[in-house]
Design goal:
CATH topology: Trna Endonuclease, Chain: A, domain 1
Strand order of the largest sheet: 1-2-3-4-5
Number of domains: 1
CATH architecture: 3-Layer(aba) Sandwich
Distance between the termini: 45 Å
Strand content: 25-35%
Radius of gyration: 15 Å
Largest sheet: 5 strands, mixed
Number of helices: 3
Length: 131
Amino acid sequence: MNGKKARAGRGKEAERYGRFAEGVCVGILLCKGYHILARRHRTPVGEIDVVAKRGPTVVFVEIKARKNQESAGEAITQRQQSRILRAAEHFLGARPELAKADIRFDAMLVGHRTLPHHVKDAWRRGFDGVR
């Protein structure tokens, strides 16, 4: 197998693992009492992995699956946080019924053979350069 085909195979494997991890994380959120509003929601400015709601709070969840949870957490860059924030603003702008909801940005970190780690309030608007 040449290098290009090997990379393509790894990419497909990583995508399958990511989708599997996303499904596991959605199941955990449901068990915690969240209502899933959207999965893999695409906007003109970016994609949001999961949008969930529990009580008065709408939560935008970024799911990262890597070899271990530490590297998964490190994979969420400031640039990505900013893109998710803009996508969240787009999502909310199209849904006036959510205008008064509390907003939170969470991360779910998935490592091989470990349960996902749910990091609530992983970042906030206006902190760490995210605007």
